[in-house]
Amino acid sequence: MTLSRRVAALFTSSLVLLGLLFTSSGSAQADEPLAIVCTTSATQNYDPGLTLVSRPTRITTSATYTCTGGGSVDSAHLSFEYTVDAGCLPTSSPVTTGVSILDWNEGPDSEITSTFVVTRPVGQTVGTSIGTVTAGQFHGYIFNLVGTYPALDLLACATSEGVTSSQGLLVLTLAQPL
Fold this sequence. Notes:
This protein is mainly beta.
C-alpha cells in the first residue's frame, strides 16, 4: 500500500472515529468538542543515524498541526523526544512511554501521558502513540497519534552515518471517552 493510501486510510479512520463520537450518546459537555483531529507533515530526526545494526538512538520530532473540530483551537504544536534501540531493519518494535506537552493556539497547554510503539509494515515506519490528556486543556480526553514515514533508503543505511532523518505524515486525534 502506498504512503498516500496509508495516510488516506488513517485520515478516514480518524473521520470515522469523529463520526461515531458525534452520534454517540456520551456525556460530552456542550462547551467542549467531542473530538479534535489535527494533521501535519514533519521531519523525524535520528541521532546517531539509523544503520543496518540496531543501536540506542535519540529520535526527535517537532511539528505544528492544523486542527478541526476544536472551535477556536485550530492549531497545535507538539514536540517529542525518546531514545530506543533502533535501526533500518525491522528487527524489533521499539516501545517507550513518556509525557509530552501539546501547545494549543488558544487556551492552556495539554499534558499527555502516552505509550509510543514503532512498527515497520512493508518497509515503512509507522509510529503510534496512545494515551490520555492528564492535565490542562481537554483533560481526560483520549490521545492518539499516528505517524507514517516512507521506507528508509537502504543504501544510506549501509553507510557509517546512516539515515539521519525522514519526512512523514502525522494524524493526531483527541476524543472524549465514550
